[in-house]
Structure to design on (182 residues):
């Protein structure tokens, strides 16, 4: 049987759902693209073993320790020929290289229990579509993904992983990501 919801809890939920959508953050991920990406490979600016790093995405929640409710992501790639899907993995704190694989062209993995505990979830973006000479885009407008931020932060850390083989990459290609939140 369903449990009754308190009036304050219901009010808090409705307040979150009725907030206007805002452009919360825009970030750029540059890819070393040292070779073709296999499905599940990290896309990062650093190839050197154990030097890969996550991308910080600020201001997703309105308050430190708050709920980051992502409702839309617009992604643009500097290369028109890419057609992959990206999976964005989110973390409460900056992941450590000993806990999470973050090197370009390496298979993504959460290598320790601490890395898995820091991981708050992921979002799979739709496939990129070529826009001719201006690159490729992936528009994701029907999201409703909520992640709890670290008590001392209103942002999340992100590792980008490709879901399919990508052979149309180019060295130093970029992904620009706009995050719309409530």
């Amino acid at each position: 049987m369903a449990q009754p919801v308190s009036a304050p809890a219901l009010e808090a939920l409705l307040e979150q759902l009725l907030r206007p959508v805002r452009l919360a953050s825009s970030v750029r991920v540059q890819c070393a693209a040292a070779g073709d990406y296999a499905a599940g490979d990290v896309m990062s600016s650093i190839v050197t073993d154990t030097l890969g790093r996550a991308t910080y995405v600020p201001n997703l929640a309105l308050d430190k320790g708050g709920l980051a409710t992502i409702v839309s992501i617009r992604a643009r790639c500097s290369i028109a020929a890419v057609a992959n899907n990206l999976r964005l993995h989110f973390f409460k704190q900056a992941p450590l290289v000993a806990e999470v694989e973050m090197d370009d062209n390496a298979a993504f993995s959460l290598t320790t229990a601490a890395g898995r505990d820091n991981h708050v979830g992921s979002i799979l973006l739709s496939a990129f579509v070529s826009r001719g000479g201006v690159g490729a885009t992936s528009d994701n407008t029907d999201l409703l993904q909520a992640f709890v931020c670290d008590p001392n932060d209103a942002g999340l850390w992100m590792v980008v992983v490709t879901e399919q083989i990508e052979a149309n990459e180019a060295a130093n290609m970029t992904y620009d990501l706009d995050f719309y939140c409530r």
